[in-house]
Amino acid sequence: MNLLEEAGKALLPESYNHLSAEEMIHRIQTIRQEFGEALFIPCHHYQKDEVVQFADSIGDSLQLAQAAAQNKKARYIVFCGVHFMAETADMLTDDTQKVLLPDLRAGCSMADMADIYQLEQAWPRLMERFGNTIMPITYINSTAAIKAFVGAHGGTTVTSSNAKQIVKYALTQKKRIFFLPDQHLGRNTTAELGIPLEEMAVWNPILQELEEIKTSDQRLQVILWKGYCSVHQHFTLKNISHIRKNHPAMQIIVHPECSYEVVQAADQSGSTKKIVDTIEAAPAGSEWAIGTEANLVGRIIQAHPDKKIVSLNPFTCPCMTMNRIDLPHLLFTLEKLHQGELIHQIHVDKPTTTNALMALDRMLLQS
Description:
The chain is α/β, with parallel strands linked by helices. It contains 16 helices and 15 strands.
């Protein structure tokens, strides 16, 4: 059964949309108590507060997948994140553990910008042009199929926390890297390592050709897949100018999925963990503008009433695909599970898992 068929099989009944929040919270709490340690609910930082309140662990995608794998008492992992995150959890957990995603429509626009069939077309073209001089690198925000391809071709994964370290290692192994799916993280990371923008080019997966070529093939070091995060794309230089003009005392910290220009204009950039830790360590009375997902920024604001914190772009939306997971979908999934029916199970086949874990293991060996 494919994902569309599975989604059709387990569409949210209309009755769930008419339940009060209080009723849904009570029913979820009751089921959690009955399952006890057999149920584990990891929640990504970008989830809504209504879902995060039930989290057994809150964090980034890889951190949550690793937490699920380490929790050997959990038989059922109801992953409140997006599809690629649940895939990673399934690949890292053992066969007795079942990973469920409350809504199969919870995807990632960035991950979807790197299609495995496009990559399978791109790779031989790049090999023909550059020879065996390229290491493929994929951001953890990618599908299991992409991770598997990268693993099978000698490449590695990265997170936003370790990208600089892993890319630095990769460039000691090969003359150039092919970084996907997020061009901004790839550009910001390699620029921080001292590689000139002129020695980077962009791979257009639709046209199957290189764009923005500013140097010879011989000097080209970085090939960036033409993908991006639809949330972080909305933080702009205009937003930064507004903060500088109206709040001159504010420090600006942004995620490296933002554009190169925005990262350069900000005071700091870093992973979600770095953003959270930086604000946590900041003195009372300090002022911050944060360029990352709205739900997380709202949660940071609530946690630090002693500091003045705003979103760098107050008009940007939360991650819409992540926000497909809500109280009704979480409750429905749990009640079906309570009835003995697994819906929205995420399962990655063995060959894909084997190759994808090769990419993950190469990263962990260098971290």
